[in-house]
Amino acid sequence: MTQVKPLIVALDFAAEAPALALVERLDPVRCRLKVGKELFTRLGPAFVERLQRLGFEIFLDLKFHDIPNTVAAACAAAADLGVWMVNVHVVGGRTMLEAARERLSRYERPPLLIGVTVLTSLDRADLAAIGCPGEPRERVLSLAHLAHEAGLDGVVCSPLETAQVRAAFGPAFRLITPGVRPEGSVSGDQKRVMTPAAALAAGADYLVIGRPITQAPDPLSVIEAIDRSCMNVLEN
Ligand SMILES: O=c1ccn([C@@H]2O[C@H](COP(=O)(O)O)[C@@H](O)[C@H]2O)c(=O)[nH]1
Question: Could you tell me which residue ranges the Orotidine 5'-phosphate decarboxylase domain spans (predicted)?
Fold first, then answer.
């Protein structure tokens, strides 16, 4: 299920001023924003509230991973903040996932609860080095299965696994893909990547894109090029 507004801009900045300079040029009708560990640690919930007052839906990407009670309480804090989407690491385990799901079910309009499967910066060798042999795809699928069973709304995976996760869990399960690189942009620390159009064609609902936009001399022209490249997929 491809969304009409798939772009989520990852606001990875070291300070408020450059983040706001970009945000002021963005349109909440055309994209959502992701606040992650760097900006949230620097600026806290007040900054998220400020972005929401500007009309943006916020993906709070703090990837909670802790004991069930702590993660459930952190998810409640995110819901109280009014964010659109929040995430947890699926490797936190079934009890943790179910605790998060249960706590958010107490809200009339809870944020989407999303599970992180295998970070897009990891390849087969990285996984083997942490004691997880096998293809990233296999691990993504088994973690997505656990997230689905625990009642999560979807998962973060790389675009490379999207088609298989989509086929396994159907159109309602949200697939959020970082590891997205417009044609010609550098991968950096991302190891499992695809272009925006290819990610959408593979079944991604949302594309999380940071540095190719935030570090571009003209971020708006990058966004326009991404939109143009995705137009055919979105129309079909
Ligand atoms: O597996 C994951 C989960 C989260 N991320 C986050 O997405 C953005 C990607 O930024 P780029 O600059 O486009 O690489 C970043 O905030 C990560 O924390 C991810 O990359 N992979």
Answer: 6-226
For residues 150, 2, 165 and 128, what is the CA-based torsion angle, rounded to 10 degrees? -100
pLDDT at 56: 98
Which residues contact ligand 1 via a Cβ below 6 A?
Answer: 10, 12, 36, 61, 116, 119-120, 156, 178-179, 188, 190, 208-211
- List pLDDT tens digits, range 163-212: 999 999 999 999 999 999 999 999 999 999 999 999 999 999 999 999 99
Of the listed 5, 37, 66, 205, which one is catalytic? 66
CA 9 to centroid of chain Cα atoms = 10
Other beta carbons less than 10 A from residue 169's beta carbon: 18
Which of 183, 149, 162, 85 is closest to 120 using CA atoms?
A: 162
Task: State the catalytic residue, choosing from 61, 153, 191, 205.
Answer: 61
Q: What is the ipTM of this complex?
A: 0.99
Q: Classify strands 154-156 and 112-116 as parallel, antiparallel or unpaired.
A: parallel
Task: Please give the C-alpha separations between residue 166 and each of 69, 102, 132, 158, 169, in angstroms, as whole numbers.
Answer: 30, 24, 23, 12, 5
Indicate if 63 belongs to the active site.
yes
The domains of the chain, with CATH numbers, are: 7-235 (3.20.20.70)
**Is 5 among the catalytic positions?**
no
Q: How far is the CA of 100 from the centre of ligand 1 (A)?
A: 22
